[in-house]
Design goal:
- The chain folds into 3 domains: 3-68, no CATH class; 77-106 and 220-372, C8orf32 fold; 118-214, Sandwich (Immunoglobulin-like).
- With 373 residues, it is an alpha+beta fold.
- The strands form 5 sheets. The chain has a 4-stranded antiparallel sheet, with no helix packed on it.
- Residues 1-41, 58-72 and 356-363 have low confidence and may be disordered.
- The protein has helices at residues 3-16, 20-24, 28-35, 44-68, 77-87, 228-236, 243-255, 262-267, 276-282, 287-299, 346-351, 354-361; strands at residues 118-120, 124-127, 135-140, 147-152, 158-162, 171-174, 180-191, 194-205, 259-260, 284-285, 305-312, 315-324, 328-330, 334-336, 341-343, 367-372.
- Helix 7 packs antiparallel against helix 10.
Length: 373
């Protein structure tokens, strides 16, 4: 039975029950005319026959109807094709491309716990050997099932993280506030939302380079040379002649293939950490997924990038900023048309009509950064 036949039968049943107006809307009269619908009242036997037949059709074809009827956000066909290509390593073929002058070899810096400068007690261990590289490595060794880490930098901004429990593991945390004194504190859950101090340590930091915290991976922006996302950034950067080309290529590829995951947005839990390969291969995510994926890809191409969290208008949101030589830090995100820069946002850019997006972003004042990772 065709879709038209199914629709016709359903409309007849709705008409007989007096509900067709509520469901058929403006197209009801057109549907009646196309079927040669007669408004004379059917007899009781005809009504029963029609209803019985309609119920049989609905029961038999309900799985098909679930597929036919619209549900959720409709995704553009070109975007689906782009997402499919992005997820398939075999499409990263550069044989027909012209190599750019810029070296596109990925460089994934590897944090190390060298054990030369260590602070610890019975429940926590802090390896600050490479603090000058812009990070510390922390492991929780206690028995509490819920543990929080707080790092307060010289700018007095307090960063709160969840620490891995049940044996713990080495986790990397950025020293993003630059040179100065940092307070590291670990808190164990006592009951409910109450925590007790389990470890504290002050460390003095002098960075070897101000950009290092934004080139290394960390707990939030976690990547390595084995990630497919890094292979994809290498592919996208193949034709690039400079960093601008890299940023534009990665940015445009992601906003034209990624789709916002509304279901994840409604169910995401506090402390969620994106898996960049999962985001890449599914082609969907929330703002944090977009930002972490793009940050990882750009960092692997030696472009300092900050994953920023704060407010876009009144919405709690995540986006990125990237450092371009001779331009400086460009906040929000960027699009370069060859003549001028305009602030952009990778999540909004993939989900919002261009003129509305430009109107919202404006000069960037709608973005208020709270945290940088």
């Amino acid at each position: 039975m065709s879709d038209n036949e199914i629709s016709s039968t359903l409309l007849e049943v709705l008409e007989l029950s007096g509900k067709a107006g509520a469901f058929a809307g403006e197209n009801q009269e057109k549907s009646k005319a196309s079927r040669g619908f007669i408004k004379s009242a059917p007899d009781f036997l005809s009504v029963n026959i029609y209803v019985s037949l309609a119920m049989l059709v609905i029961i038999t074809l309900s799985p098909i109807l679930l597929l036919v009827l619209p549900h959720g956000i409709v995704i553009d066909a070109d975007r689906l094709l782009a997402a499919k290509a992005m997820a398939n390593r075999e499409t990263y073929d550069v044989s027909t491309l012209v190599k750019g002058t810029r070296d596109n070899t990925p460089v994934c810096l590897k944090p190390k716990a060298d054990g030369k400068v260590v602070y610890k007690n019975d429940v926590a261990k802090v390896d600050a050997t490479n603090a000058s590289e812009g990070y510390v490595i922390i492991r929780y060794t206690g028995e509490s099932p819920k543990v929080k880490l707080r790092i307060t930098g010289p700018d007095e901004v307090v960063y709160t993280y969840n620490l891995t429990t049940d044996g713990g593991k080495d986790e990397v945390f950025p020293l993003q506030a630059g040179d100065g004194k940092y307070l590291i504190a670990v808190y164990e859950n006592l009951v409910g939302t109450q925590y007790v101090t389990a470890f504290t340590q002050n460390i003095e930091v002098t960075l070897n380079d101000e950009f290092l915290p934004f080139l290394y991976p960390n707990q939030y922006v976690n990547f390595n040379e084995g990630n497919q996302a890094i292979a994809y950034s290498e592919y996208l950067s193949y034709t690039a002649n400079d960093d601008l080309d890299v940023v534009s290529a990665i940015y445009n590829a992601l906003i034209s293939s990624m789709s916002y995951d509304y279901e994840e947005a409604e169910t995401v839990q506090s402390g969620y950490l994106p898996d960049i390969d999962e985001v890449l291969t599914t082609g969907k995510g929330i703002c944090l997924d977009y930002a972490v994926l793009m940050t990882s890809m750009l960092r692997s191409q030696r472009i300092p990038t900050r994953m920023e969290v704060g407010y876009a208008g009144t919405a709690y949101h995540a986006w990125i900023s990237t450092y371009i030589k001779d331009v400086g830090w460009v906040n929000g995100m960027i699009q370069f048309d060859g003549k001028k820069w305009s602030l952009m946002d990778p999540t909004f850019a993939s989900t919002t009509e261009t003129t509305k997006l430009a109107s919202f972003i404006g000069d960037g004042e709608n973005y208020q950064t709270k945290y940088i990772y």
